[in-house]
Structure formats: structure tokens, C-alpha cells
Amino acid sequence: MTTSSEAKVVVHGGLEKAASTFLQERIFPNVPNYDYVPDMRQSLIALGTTHWSQLNPTVLSDFARLAESRTILSSEGLVCVERAYDGAYTNRSNLTIANLSHLLKDAVHLLIVLRRQDTAIDSMIRYKQRYLADPKSFLVDFPFKRTPVSTVWDYRSLTSRLLQSYNYHHHLIPAFDLLGPDRITLLTHEELVEKPNVFFARLGKVLDTDIHSLVAESEKKVNARSAKYSDLPEQYVPMPHVVRRLNNLSGNRVEKLLPSRESGLTEKMKREIVDIFRDSNRQLSDLFELDLDEYGYF
Q1: Which H or E element spans position 199?
Q2: Contact 243, 267 (CB under 8 A)
Q3: Within-domain flag for 1
Q4: Which end of the chain has the smaller Cβ count within 10 Å, N or C?
Q5: Model confidence over 21-50: pLDDT tens digits?
Q6: What are phi and psi of 176, to 5 degrees?
Q7: How far apart are CA 7 and CA 111, in angstroms?
Q8: Is 26 a domain residue?
Q9: What is the distance between the alpha carbons of residues 142 and 98, in angstroms, rounded to a whole number?
């Protein structure tokens, strides 16, 4: 383990579909003077489930040994996306931040890579299209095994809950209050794509090291689509609730009889999403003194 008189534990908390896999596979393992510990993802997720005093002793031990180190940890969706797309991810971002602050003290530095909500949701739909296949309400419909509902025929929508997960300002206020702006860095996926040199300069500042040599890695695309869904067609079949449930029970045979449409959000949906988050993104930009308007966040 790399130790230093100036301990620093950089905790990367996602988002999903915002270059997390790229950072985890191509960048973090190659940062000089830091240990990247990829096998602590479950320990990180556990921080959002209960108060630190109730955590498993193994989890507590994992973090105790890092407090005097220079380490990078990573778990996509750790802070901002409070509820994953399967409807069962129940960690709370404020609890995660509070536990990190207690366990790692002044050593913790939170790193979040944001992505504008319309493109983030569109990318997730294309990535897990069978789970998000209703064009009228893009996050409304899930296989019954992945929804926190009582029966196959329960029609309650998770759309509002999932939209709340993309309110970055809401989720990062506790981090701002507990850690302060000096121990939080927000980067954007858009900057990585359009200005990789600037992105890596800012990331290097977080890590107190020059990582310009890693810029070339940004040209190598990873995790374009989940291997779990690699057998799905590029188009998907929109279905109402009852038909979707029947399709799930039939092993996806019903959808073969129905017309499909192009996957992802429509342009109208994208505009609606930008409008939904315009004010909260502006508040986030002001709070952290960011230039999110450069990339159309508001």
C-alpha cells in the first residue's frame, strides 16, 4: 500500500454511463503514487445503507487501513444516482457522504464525473434497453423481478423516483456541507469528450500528479454496451404495462410479434429532461463555481 505523510483517499462516485469504466480500467490503475483498490466496490455501496457504527466489521476494517494511505476507490452511481435502474438500489447519498467523512476524516476527497441528464439517461436506455422500453414514459417499465412492487400486476411507476436520482444538486448538497468545496471535485463527461487535455489537467490536480501521458487513453472506447444485453437488437419494442409483464413471463416471446422503434430517447424527451433539470443544474453550477452552461446543462 502506498503511504504518505499527506494521506489522500480519492473516492470516485460515478455517474453510471459517465466514463466510469474507462476511468476504472484505463486511468486509475496507472496513476503514479496511488494504489487503486477495485475490490472495495461493495464496501463503498454498504456505506449508503446504515450508520457507520452498524456496518459489518470487515467494511470498517477495509476503511481503517486506508486512512493513512494514498488510494483511489471507485463505484459508479455511489453518490448521485441514489436508486439504480432495477429499482432495488436503496443506498442514500447523504448517509454515504457522512460515513465517508467519519471513516476517512480529512483524507477523503470526493470525485464525481457528471453527464448532462438527457444524454446520461439516453445512454443508459441504450445500454439496458429491455429494462427501459416504454416511449411514453421512458423510465416507467421494468421486468417485474426488478421492481419493488408486490405483484407482477402492480402498475406503479418508478419514473419520478429515478428522475430524482438525476438531480445532482440535491445529492451533492450534503457533500458540500460535510466535506466543503475543497474536498469535492466535479468533472464532466462532456469535457472528457470535447476537451480531454483540460479534463486530465483537472483530474491531475485532484491527484496531485501529472497524468497528461494518459490523455491518449481517452480515444479508446470501453463499455459501449453491456455484454449482458449484447443479444438484443438495436431497436426495441414499446409495450404498455400489462403486455410488458406478459412478455417477461413468456421469456420475451411476445415482443417478437410487435413492431419496434429506434432505441433511446426521442428529441422531444431530451428537451423535456433538460427543462426539468435546468434550475437545479444552475444552482449546482453556482454552488461549485462551475461552467456547466458551456455544455448545455441550463
Answers
A1: helix 196-207
A2: no
A3: no
A4: N
A5: 899 999 999 999 999 999 898 889 888 888
A6: -60, -40
A7: 16
A8: yes
A9: 31
Q: What is the CATH number of the domain that holds 157?
A: 3.40.50.300
The pLDDT-based confidence of 84 (bands split at 50, 70, 90) is: very low
pLDDT of 176 reads 94
Phi, psi of 53 (to 5 degrees): -70, -20
Domain tally, the chain: 1
The reply to whether 3 falls in a domain is no
Nine-digit cell string for 286: 453556482
User: What are the φ and ψ backbone dihedral angles of 60, each rounded to 5 degrees?
Assistant: -60, -40
Assess whether the previous peptide bond of 15 is cis (omega < 30° from 0).
yes
Average pLDDT, the chain: 80
Residue 255, CA distances (Å) to 130, 194, 247, 276 in order: 10, 38, 6, 31
- Confirm whether 270 is domain-assigned: yes
* Residue numbers of the domain that contains 291: 8-295
**Cα R_g (the chain), whole angstroms:** 20
DSSP character for 5? Answer: S
Does residue 158 have a pLDDT over 60? no
- Per-residue cell: 267: 428529441
281 residue type, one letter: N
Task: Tell me the pLDDT band of 140, cut-offs 50, 70 and 90.
Answer: very low
- Residue 107 is classified by DSSP as G
- pLDDT confidence band for 217 (50 / 70 / 90): confident
